[in-house]
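Example 9 (inverse folding). The structure is encoded as follows.
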């Protein structure tokens, strides 16, 4: 499984579920007694689950650093463990849910089957469709470059990061029934006045750091010369973004679609 930094998780989840939580309705959070957030990371989803449910929420993650942050910042119980071999007895929870976990696992079906054993009622997954991300920017080169990087990344990554409709099939293969699905759009907008997060993101682009976090995957599909050329273009684009910010003219909108799929353990 790929490893993510706390900063990366915070940046990519910032504002998620702030606008509407209607897509979470099939999870029946108001009726839950005990929920497991599998692959909880730094606890972004766990906070939402805890605020929407009267039940107990438990965080599970294989990364002790992320788990420590989740526990410290949410106050929720946090347990270290592998999502495909969770350290709980069967039927411990009435909802097991994950967010952006299955797309990072080599065998997502193994995780869903494990979740089915843990839950007495529902299993849910909230997974991004990275192949259908939309970006608009006042810096024209940013749109084209992000499209190229995303295509190369999807080709080079070892897991299925754009499951889309396949997620429903995985639920069926795992023995789950009464499957319901909704699509949620996480929209992130950068516009004046720019906060520190937006300024830091621009600096990462100008330094090449935003590209380097995916260097391993990109180099699997790009030659050394192609990667170096892409990195040079990326840094130039980053400098253009910073200049547009200085002028107060920079605006960027990104829409990431998430599929919310819920299945019942018993028929």
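The amino acid assigned to each position is listed next.
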């Amino acid at each position: 499984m790929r490893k993510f930094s706390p900063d990366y998780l915070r940046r990519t989840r910032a504002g998620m579920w702030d606008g509407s939580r209607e897509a979470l309705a099939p999870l029946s959070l108001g009726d839950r007694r005990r929920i497991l957030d599998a692959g909880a990371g730094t606890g972004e989803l766990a906070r939402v689950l805890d605020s929407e449910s009267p039940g107990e929420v438990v965080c599970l993650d294989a990364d002790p650093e992320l788990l420590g942050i989740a526990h410290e910042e949410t106050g929720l119980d946090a347990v270290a463990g592998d999502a495909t071999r969770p350290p709980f007895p069967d039927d411990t929870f009435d909802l097991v849910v994950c967010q952006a976990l299955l797309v990072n696992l080599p065998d997502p079906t193994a995780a869903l089957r494990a979740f089915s054993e843990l839950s007495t009622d529902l299993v849910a997954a909230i997974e991004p469709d990275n192949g259908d991300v939309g970006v608009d920017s006042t810096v024209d080169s940013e749109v084209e470059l992000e499209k190229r990087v995303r295509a190369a990344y999807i080709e080079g990554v070892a897991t299925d990061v754009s499951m889309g409709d396949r997620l429903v099939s995985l639920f069926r293969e795992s023995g789950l029934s009464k499957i319901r699905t909704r699509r949620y759009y996480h929209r992130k907008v950068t516009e004046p006045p720019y906060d520190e997060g937006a300024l830091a993101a621009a600096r990462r682009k100008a330094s090449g750091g935003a590209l380097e976090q995916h260097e391993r995957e990109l180099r699997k599909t790009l030659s050394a010369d192609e990667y170096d050329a892409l990195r040079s273009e990326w840094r130039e684009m980053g400098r253009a973004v910073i200049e547009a910010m200085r002028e107060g003219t920079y605006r960027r909108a990104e829409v990431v679609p998430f599929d919310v799929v819920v299945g019942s353990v018993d028929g």
